[in-house]
Amino acid sequence: MAVVAGTRPEVIKLAPVVRRLGDDAEVVLTGQHHDPELLGQHLGSALPDTPVSMLAPLLEGSHRVGLWADQLTHRFRRVRPSAVVVQGDTDSVVAGAMAARAVGVPIVHVEAGLRSHDLSMPEEVNRRYLALVADVHCAPTFENERNLLAEGVGGDRILVTGNTIVEAVRESRRADVTDVDRWLPPGIVRGEYVLATIHRPENTDHETALRRALTGLAELDVPVVLAAHPRTRAAIERSGCSRLAARLVVRTPPDHGLFLTLAEHARLVVSDSGGVQEESTVLGFPLVTVRRNTERPESLAAGFNRLVTPLDDLGAVANAMLRDPNLRERLRRQPSPYGDGHASDRIAQICRDGVLPAWTAA
Length: 362
Fold this sequence. Notes:
It is a single chain. Helix content is about 50%, strand content about 15%. By secondary structure, the protein is an alpha/beta fold. A 7-stranded parallel beta sheet has the order 3-2-1-4-5-6-7, with helices on both faces. A 6-stranded parallel beta sheet has the order 10-9-8-11-12-13, with helices on both faces. Its EC number is 5.1.3.14.
């Protein structure tokens, strides 16, 4: 079966499923994240023995989804897969689903049913599209299942599997703290820094939002290490925020395993990532999410995550969390709302068995 992915988070979350599928899986990458900092450094360690194909590279643009879908359609017509597996809410997910629908093979959507209820987000539009076309919806939580049911998806097409992030974190995490010490700059030690990542367009494409986020980080009580996505570095230069960023320690992003260990040893993590919201619940680290909204309310309800809009006072919220002496210990006792670490086993079994009625009808 074909596993279509395009971004680093997709590879991270699909890797446990691919490993469990073994020889039954072939990974096709669209090249959505073509920067080696984002994808190349993780691919070899996550999927060392799995066949991986790459589509012809494309420039950015709204037309790329259709071009990816065309390439995938031609590919699937030459070698018809038993199913197409996609994960999440990226443009690559839509392209994979379009191609699967064009050739009439089942679509398995991993991480189905997440909703921000904000249609200004391209990801939300992509999620709604998958709800219409997928044959099998692997919902991480019962909240996600309720979202799908409310949109008219039949209950016989939904399985609550848990989220593959639980096993992805457990399998990717590095235990060797010397890696942390080598990555951290001189003068910053384990347990006495804030780890930050900012990369979403709502923060990087608007100078006011970016400036406020960087200002808030610069106001924190402990040193801030900003693992800067290429989009963020370009936005800092473009917006004239270089002097403000100089008040932080700016580093290139580490690979996933090292990032998780860095997050474990940070006093606090500040991010706008969806995946980090989930990872915080697995490893028990406190998180501030800089977003207008989130499709992962479970992390908020469980107390791991605080949502701060791009124009809110990030510094005040984060400093209050830093000054709470019992926060991390409380979080470490709190179970993750994203499952028991067997989501990938369930999804791989679904892919092999085709247990839902829609599967045999496709």
